[in-house]
């Protein structure tokens, strides 16, 4: 069944926001804001290269970054129709709470209400990876405008945001897409989560660094690019495991595209080449894989794609929808 | 977002069928028909323990089984509102074609049109595993009436049918739920499909028999029940791999329940105990698994559940919907 287009027309009638909105992407060590008009043009942007802070100071830090972006665009807060916020953690979009964001030290934090009180604007919050998936779908930045896509974020952790038939798939408990804790090797090394053999224990940034006894994954990829044999072996293994993740996402969800982003993915060819080689090997092995993993199954985002901030913009546009649909429906911009 | 109930009320208005319908489950070596009234009561049933035959004779074989069930219920074909058919193969529900059913030798077979012409009734066809998933959801046979569930069929092949937020998830190319060809062991043994390390290469009926040098999986489970050490080791390994599949389905889809059925699952305790032991081990390993794999995550269907025929009944009830929604929407019976 394909009701996407009809459903989106309905959404456009009910929920689309004609004016500018702000999307704010909260990372572990920075805040990025994008102000975008109804046609999708960027009016302003700002990046604060500092932590958003603890729950007591976070609302003020976020507002400061937003105000800087507004200043650059010669706009006031009241010119905005809504604000979307992507948070690296578990989010309850209905209540507007950040349930748990380990890297930020947040726990059951009523971020939406705090921001709405501070800004006097409608605010929608969403998990950053899910928001990015919605943004990628909304902006049609992938060829062929697939109605079903996954965004695989490879960074400090690994997770997927999944759009099925044009709608964000959250799952029954809001935990869909936990591919980082799917098991790539039964009985494999212990993951931080407690399980054995999780994908994240092999292929997240910190795991790559730990496996190579290097300070960061970036150094490992630089060593691989310089021809270091051990680094090449390791980055080949990471590519093989991430290809497994893409294969698993496709075999379960039957998505048409898997878009790969996140800090680790910015390492260029030493990241991308082993991944593509393994996908090619899988594709050639069977008719089923050949059909489900065509050559264009994967897009690796360029570092400048700002997937997180654009995702927050897409999430902001859902502020006009009924409370239950905010953050989850996809409202196309004009 | 939970729009299930509202969506189903709408469906009830548009699509529910007040009269009796027939569900026909086509297996590799039998045909089973169930005739059910609008309240869900069984009016008649019939089972033909013979192959449905090639494309030339299949429509007549199916009609003969249906007529026998009608005779037992003292009904005529014209008393039925619709007929649903579950087929072990790839189905294009919109065109009503069986694209490929390897075990039946069918290829691009216009089964719906053939049956409609023969019976003079609306017919909806669907893949058997997906139909069973819809049937399990529709009949609320699982505790707690989950809106998100997977049906994991373990038999000659392994596949999952997935209901998300009360609707069948087909995937972009109609191939969602191919968990049998997800890779449980990178570089593992070659699967019939050509890939290496597929779940099916370890845990389907024929694979279990092959691994034990036994005629069938049933004999392997009987040997395990009788205390044979090698058989116990093998069936423990199968349980571990199937628990991996359940874990993977839950980590990706975040379904609330995984219902296990299919011929291999009828082996009783030697099938179920190792599976539950491994799930318990996974559950205890991490907070995330603890939340996603609660003790009631799995139901193993009893052999008499007739999941396939009830699935075909659920599919029949969608005949009143718009063509694009047939087979995919779930229409609750009264």
Describe the structure.
- The structure is a homodimer of 334-residue chains.
- Chain A is an alpha/beta fold and 334 residues long.
- The first copy, chain A, has helices spanning 4-15, 55-72, 111-119, 128-138, 200-203, 205-212, 217-225, 229-253, 269-285, 287-292, 307-316, and strands spanning 21-26, 31-36, 42-48, 82-87, 90-92, 97-101, 106-109, 123-127, 149-154, 158-164, 167-168, 257-261, 298-300.
- Chain A has two domains: 4-129 and 307-325, ATPase, nucleotide binding domain (Nucleotidyltransferase, domain 5), CATH 3.30.420; 144-295, ATPase, nucleotide binding domain (Nucleotidyltransferase, domain 5).
- The first copy, chain A, is built from eleven helices and 13 strands.
- In chain A, strands 3-2-1-4-8 form a five-stranded mixed beta sheet. The first copy, chain A, has a five-stranded mixed beta sheet with strand order 11-10-9-12-13, sandwiched between helices.
- In chain A, helix 2 crosses helix 3 and helix 7 (217-225) crosses helix 8.
- The longest helix of chain A has 25 residues, at 229-253.
- Chain A is globular and about 55 Å long.
- Chains A and B meet through helix 8 and helix 10 of A and helix 8 and helix 10 of B.
């Amino acid at each position: 069944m394909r009701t996407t287009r009809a459903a989106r027309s309905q959404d456009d009638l009910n929920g689309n926001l004609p004016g500018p909105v702000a999307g704010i992407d909260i990372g572990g060590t920075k805040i990025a804001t994008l102000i975008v008009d109804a046609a999708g043009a960027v009016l302003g942007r700002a990046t604060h290269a500092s932590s958003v802070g603890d729950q007591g100071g976070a609302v003020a830090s976020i507002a400061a970054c937003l105000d800087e972006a507004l200043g650059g665009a010669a706009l006031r807060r009241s010119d905005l129709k809504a604000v979307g916020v992507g948070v690296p953690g578990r989010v309850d979009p209905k209540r507007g709470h950040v349930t748990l964001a380990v890297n930020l030290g947040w726990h059951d934090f009523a971020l939406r209400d705090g921001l709405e009180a501070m800004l006097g604007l409608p605010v929608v919050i969403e998990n950053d990876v899910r928001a990015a998936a919605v943004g990628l779908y909304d902006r049609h930045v992938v060829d062929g405008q697939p109605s079903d896509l996954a965004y695989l974020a490879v960074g400090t952790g690994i997770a997927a945001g999944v759009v099925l038939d044009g709608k964000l798939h959250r799952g029954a408990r809001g935990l869909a897409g936990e591919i980082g804790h799917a098991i790539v090797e039964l009985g494999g090394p212990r993951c931080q989560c407690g399980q054995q053999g999780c994908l994240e224990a092999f292929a997240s940034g910190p795991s790559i660094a730990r496996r190579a006894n290097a300070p960061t994954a970036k150094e490992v990829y630089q060593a691989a690019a310089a021809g270091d044999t051990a680094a090449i072996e390791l980055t080949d293994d990471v590519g093989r495991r991430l290809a497994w993740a893409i294969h698993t996402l496709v075999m379960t969800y039957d998505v048409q595209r898997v878009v790969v982003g996140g800090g680790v993915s910015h390492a260029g060819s030493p990241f991308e080449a082993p991944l593509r080689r393994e996908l090619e090997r899988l594709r050639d092995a069977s008719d089923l894989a050949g059909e489900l993993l065509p050559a264009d199954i994967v897009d690796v985002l360029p570092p400048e794609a700002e997937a997180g901030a654009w995702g927050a913009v897409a999430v902001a546009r859902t502020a006009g929808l009924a409370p239950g649909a905010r953050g989850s429906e996809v409202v196309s911009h004009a």
